[in-house]
């Protein structure tokens, strides 16, 4: 059974700091949405180019794009192992997608 530890909270609440500490202490990979978004922009992927326009305008990135970015990395790297998730989900729709994804991979979920 895999474990997904999901860190939730408002910006600057310490969830990223705690996620790093937990991931390090338990030797678990960390999936941080902010890092994923920055990687997509830096790598100039199709998703990164879409995201860049929202970031430049200071607008929220639509759920569809955020979900695509998360699912791409989750399905490629984390579906077989336990992980700490930081910064996702941010909306009810994203939470529903996360719940469905984790259940499909038989992961036990804990939200903090």
Topology-level CATH name: Rossmann fold
From the spread of the alpha carbons, the general shape counts as globular
Q: At the first level of CATH, what is the class?
A: Alpha Beta
Count of the domains: 1
Annotation field: number of helices: 5
Relevant terms:
single chain; 112 residues; alpha/beta; Rossmann fold; 4-stranded parallel sheet; 5 helices; 4 strands
Describe the protein in words:
The chain has 112 residues and is an alpha/beta fold. It has one domain: P-loop containing nucleotide triphosphate hydrolases (Rossmann fold, 3-Layer(aba) Sandwich), CATH 3.40.50. It contains 5 helices and 4 strands. The protein has helices spanning 15-25, 33-42, 46-57, 63-78, 92-104; strands spanning 2-7, 30-32, 83-86, 107-111. The protein has a 4-stranded parallel sheet with strand order 2-3-1-4, with helices on both faces. Helix 2 packs across helix 3, helix 2 packs across helix 4 (63-78) and helix 4 packs parallel to helix 5 (92-104). The longest helix has 16 residues, at 63-78. It is globular and about 40 Å long. It starts with a strand and ends with a strand. The mean pLDDT is 86.
């Amino acid at each position: 059974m895999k474990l997904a530890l999901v860190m939730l909270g408002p910006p600057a609440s310490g969830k990223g700091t705690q996620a790093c500490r937990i991931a390090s202490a338990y030797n678990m990979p960390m999936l941080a949405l902010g890092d994923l978004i920055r990687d997509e922009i830096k790598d100039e992927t199709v998703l990164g180019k879409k995201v860049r326009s929202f970031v430049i305008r200071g607008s929220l990135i639509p759920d569809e794009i955020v979900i695509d970015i998360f699912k791409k990395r989750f399905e490629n790297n984390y579906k077989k192992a336990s992980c700490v998730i930081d910064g996702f989900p941010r909306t009810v729709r994203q939470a529903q997608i996360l719940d469905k994804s984790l259940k499909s991979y038989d992961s036990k979920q804990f939200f903090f």
